[in-house]
Design goal:
With about 90 residues, the protein is α+β, with helices and mostly antiparallel strands. The protein has helices at about 50-55, 60, 75-80, and strands spanning about 5-10, 15-20, 25, 30-40, 40-50. The strands form two sheets. Strands 1-4-5 form a three-stranded antiparallel beta sheet. Strand 4 and strand 5 form a beta hairpin. The longest helix has 9 residues, at about 50-55. It is globular, with a radius of gyration of 13 Å.
Length: about 90
């Protein structure tokens, strides 16, 4: 089931959040992309700038199902480790 995105934007966080893509934790004050999504419930997902750009540009490398066009928790982590961007 594809989630519907109600809205998304970049925000400067007021508390620490975990990036849904790479699973790194970012302290408050970090600029992150937040999306408000709904499937069977309303939820917010946070992505760091690296993961947001990566998901937008390298969809074939990241998406579980490119036809559905969704990503999952930790979807960019292995890719970023393989490329030496994170440890």
């Amino acid at each position: 089931m594809k989630m519907d995105v109600l809205g998304s934007k970049y925000v400067r966080t007021r508390k620490k959040h975990q990036c849904m893509g790479c699973l790194r934790v970012f302290e408050k004050g970090h600029k992150m992309h937040v999306a408000v999504c709904v499937d069977d419930r309303i939820m917010r997902t946070y992505l760091c700038r690296t993961c947001d750009i990566l998901i937008k540009t390298d969809k074939d490398e990241i998406f579980v199902d490119p036809c559905e066009g969704y990503y999952h928790e930790g979807c960019t982590r292995e890719y970023l480790i393989d490329k030496g961007i994170i440890k």
